[in-house]
Amino acid sequence: MLCYSPGYVGEGILHEPDKWTAPSEPTPEISWYRSIFFPSSHINYIAKDTPLGSIAVSVKPMEDNYYLILRTSDNVETGTIPTKDVSKKRGLLKTFLKKSKKKPEQYAIIKYKPELGHTALYECNYQAVKDQLLQIESPDVFEGKFRIGLLYSQPHQNNENEMFCNTEVSQDFEEFTDLLGTRIELQGWNKYPGGLDVVGGKTGKYSLFTEFEGNEIMWHVPTMMPFFPDDPQQLERKKHVGNDRAVVIFRDPGGDPIPPNIVHSKAVHLCIVIEPVHNEEGDFYRVCVAYKNTVPFFEPALPEEAEFKKGPTFINFLLHKLINGIQATSHAEEFKQLMSFKYKHSLTCLCSDYGVKQEKKEQPEDVT
User: Rap-GAP domain location, by residue (predicted)?
Assistant: First the structure.
């Protein structure tokens, strides 16, 4: 179904499987704030004008250490400071200042970053701040909205131009789209449009839309878009699919394997090929997955047989695989800049809102 192409990781039924890079288990990422801080008591400090710029610091006292997360516009640091070191520093300062109003957590920050010793750190334990810090730790650049290419391929078609030129589809493809989503009319559509024209009809009258676990998916289906007889490349169709990070190719059985980069695009990092199978046991879908080796592994893993019985269980698996895969592409070098922008923007907004002294009457403090 998929032939080997350098620079790709493959799962499922692959041509010349020995050549492919097998998916490797990812290095677990510890989400410090989500797993260690958020579930229990801790203190957050926000400051705008510091030697490090705008910062957000979370401090959590443990038995022998203070755990810290320091967020600046450039990076995120995690560290620990022994409790005894903080107690010693606090005692010395009290001797000189006679009366210190600083909390031990503030001394832990100063011990970790001495340059913050003269910085006004504003304690912010509002639930809204905690929720924003969760988002900063794991920024969602998609916000639950996804656009995915869905190409139909006849068995003999081995290049993108042939696929983009299709105007008719098979009964198997029709049944697959019925399982996958809902046929919607674009004119006046008021949910996620995925870049399609919902006013002038320039991208066709209908499209395919899916709502799944709070996510909205607009499918870019070339056979549902206008066809231009004088354009062998069908660029008006391709410009939508070519800007998607994931492409699903539904391929009628009987053809030769195709490469995962059959859609020539810098944006497409994930390709899933689906082929219908009919036998005495029923109707099935055979699946293979390929993604660029700059994309980290993502669940759910494709089972060894890579063949699924036709029905909602398969669609559930496919949508999870696609959504997780698209999110994983954000870690590829080509998209890291967008992740960095999202992080910096969120931190700047947080510090602008809370990096000044807050009046207690403005919001009730969350003491949990």
Answer: 134-350
Please give the structure tokens belonging to residue 164: 């983009």
What mean pLDDT do residues 199-217 have?
Answer: 97
Per residue in 72-85, is it b (16+ CB within 10 Å) or e — as a string?
beeeeeeeebebee
Backbone angles phi, psi at 280, to 5 degrees: -65, -20
Neighbours of 279 (CB within 10 A): 7
Between CA 166 and CA 144 the distance in angstroms is: 30
Confidence of residue 179 (pLDDT cuts 50, 70, 90): very high
Residues 117 and 182 placed together within one structural domain of the fold = no
Q: Which domain holds residue 40?
A: 32-137
Task: Specify the pTM.
Answer: 0.77
C-alpha separations of 197 from 102, 166, 200, 328 in Å: 57, 21, 6, 28
Number of domains in the chain: 2
pLDDT of 221 higher than 80: yes
Provide the pLDDT confidence category of residue 28 given band limits of 50, 70 and 90: low
**Cross-strand pairs, 9:** 21, 291
153 and 110: one domain?
Answer: no
Could you tell me which of 276, 269, 279 has the C-alpha nearest to residue 333? 269
- % pLDDT > 70, the chain: 90
Closest CA to 224 of 267, 182, 263: 182
Query: Among 226, 217, 222, 208, which Cα is nearest to 245's?
Result: 217
Mean pLDDT of the chain: 88
